[in-house]
Amino acid sequence: MNAQVKKAAPRKAPAPKKTVAKPIDLAELLKLPAQLEAGFQRILDKMTQPAPAPLPSSVETGTEHAAARLEALLTLFSGKQAQNILQDMLETGRPPTREQLLRQADKLIAAR
Questions:
Q1: Quick check: 102 and 62 in contact, CB under 8 A?
Q2: Predicted pLDDT at 95
Q3: What are the residues whose beta carbons fall under 8 Å from the beta carbon of 38, sequence distance 6 or more?
Q4: How many domains does the chain have?
Q5: 104-111: long-range contacts at Cβ-Cβ below 8 A with a sequence spacing of 24 or more?
Q6: What region does 65 belong to: left with phi over 0, alpha with psi -120 to 50, or beta?
Q7: Share of the chain above pLDDT 70, in %
Q8: Which of 1, 63, 68, 89 is most exposed by smallest CB count within 10 Å?
Q9: Within a domain: residue 103?
Q10: pTM
Q11: Residue 11 in domain
Q12: Which range marks the domain in which residue 80 is found?
C-alpha cells in the first residue's frame, strides 16, 4: 500500500510589532544640552583627578634603562646570539616573547 505522509503546511512568521516612540516635547529637548553638559563635566572631573594611589618607586617603568636595553637588543639581533634566537624559534615554532627578549637583554647588560 502506498500511504502518503502529509506534511504540515509552513506557517507564516509573525509580523514584528512596531513600537511607537513616545513623543518628545519642547521642555525635554531644552533639558538635553544641560544633561549632556553635566555628563561631560563628570567625565572631565574623573579624568583630571589624581591617581588613587601613587606607584611605588621600586616599580621599573619602560623608560628606565631604555638606551642600554636597546643597545643590548641590537647586539642580540646582530651578533652571535641572533643564531641562538633563530634556533629557538625553529625549535619552538614561535618567536620569543617580549619578556624573554628583555630578560636576555638584561643578562647581556649584567654580563658587561
A1: no
A2: 85
A3: none
A4: 1
A5: 104/72, 104/76, 105/69, 105/72, 105/73, 105/76, 106/69, 106/72, 108/72, 108/75, 108/76, 108/81, 109/65, 109/68, 109/69, 109/72
A6: left
A7: 85
A8: 1
A9: yes
A10: 0.41
A11: no
A12: 66-111
Domain membership of residue 80 (yes or no) is yes
Q: Is residue 74 part of a domain?
A: yes
How far, in Å, CA of 69 to CA of 77, rounded? Answer: 12
**38 grid coordinates:** 553635566
Residues 6-41: tens digit of each pLDDT: 787 888 888 888 777 788 787 877 777 777 788 878
Return the percentage of the chain with pLDDT > 90, whole number: 0
C-alpha cell at 24: 518628545
CB 100 within 8 A of CB 108: no
